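Class, carefully examine what follows:
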Amino acid sequence: MAETANRHASSFRDPSGFMFMKDGILLRQVNPIYFGQYRSLTDSGFYKKLFDAGLLVRHEEVSSHGDAIIMKPEAIPFFSYPYEWSFSQYKHAALHTLKLQKYCLQNGYTLKDATAFNVTFHKGKPMFVDSLSFDIYKDGEPWRAYKQFLMHFLAPLVLAKYYGNDMLKLLAQYIDGITLQKAAKLLPFTARFNPILYTNIFLTAKYDAKYSDDKISGNGKEIRISKQSQEKIIDSLYSYINGLELKENTEWRDYYSITNYDAEAFEHKKKLVRKWYQSINAKKAVDLGGNDGTFSRELKDIADELLVADIDPNAVNHNYLQVLKNKETNIVPLVSDLLNPVPGIGFNNAERASLQERIRKNKYDVSLALALIHHISLTGNVPFAMSAEMFASLTPYLIIEFPDRGDSWVDFLLKSKREFLNHFDYYNKENFEKDYAAYFDVIEKQQIPNTERTMYLLKRK
């Protein structure tokens, strides 16, 4: 029985099936056109192999009818998108996709979709989420999703290598991937001397129009590529991407070594965050401007989920590497600019949800806004009333830190205003409390010892 009325806004491109909501549960419908592949994947035990190998999100079949098979995937609390990943996250998502395709070939299957939007981060690691992206491998048939992989993974990663982290945000503009012709034009001339880039970017871009979908050669004959040759291509891409590094300095470097906290104040702040989190019986928190996750980690043993977002990609990258190292499965690092959060994009602006919509939908108990309000107010020129309204729209509780005018960072930001300095006379604790009182009640507030900063635990009205 079709469930098109409740179809998920992002699930319409693949005729094999789609996602839909029923009684608050996300389900996937398999259409008859995909029954053959689905039964092969299920009966052969290959789905189970993928689950056990950590390559595909788990699912279970809940019903089967003549016109539809319904499966229930494992719930993923927060779904992140490629343009919200740090460099290492993006790289690991690419490697995960290559590993998955090679494993498919070794078991008689192939990926028919290799979009970066089929990967998200779940329990600390990249996870492929589309159970209908697999097909039965036919001997000699090229990898149909090869070009899509290059457009969604290799091109952004290589552009980031040469031009910095901002290149990883390109899929927000190019939802179907960066064309290889565009990537070839943007890359420096010297990139042609790298055999991997020459073959997979420049040469493929040159002949892309002539060899449509890599299926038909110039003389009209179908291209055939052996399984062994495909595995060699995958291995070469894997080795190259695995070795990619990005060296770009950002403001995060040595952030905590130049902070104006002494050791006592730093520890007091960490203990206060934990105490207040427990006092409201919170289970899930979103740390906005969470840097490398230092303060969120004070909660990792008592929180079900911690979304840690920051504008600085190097801070997020460091956070992610710590998540991997320490197996912190409940921490989700995210690159996000709170002054310019990710909007809804794609068809009807709903195919990929905005960051704020996903935060609200996931129903976090509390937002952390530590060492953040002065950047919003003085760097972004956002009035207190507007930031209060924004925070109130996200979570019922807010733990926020206010640095007053005597704080060295505030003083630096105010002086940077030069001739407009007097325009920011409103920036003080009294005005902050007055404007936030329109949206929140103060449960508790404390001065951080030896600082010009005050911590507030607020509850939405």
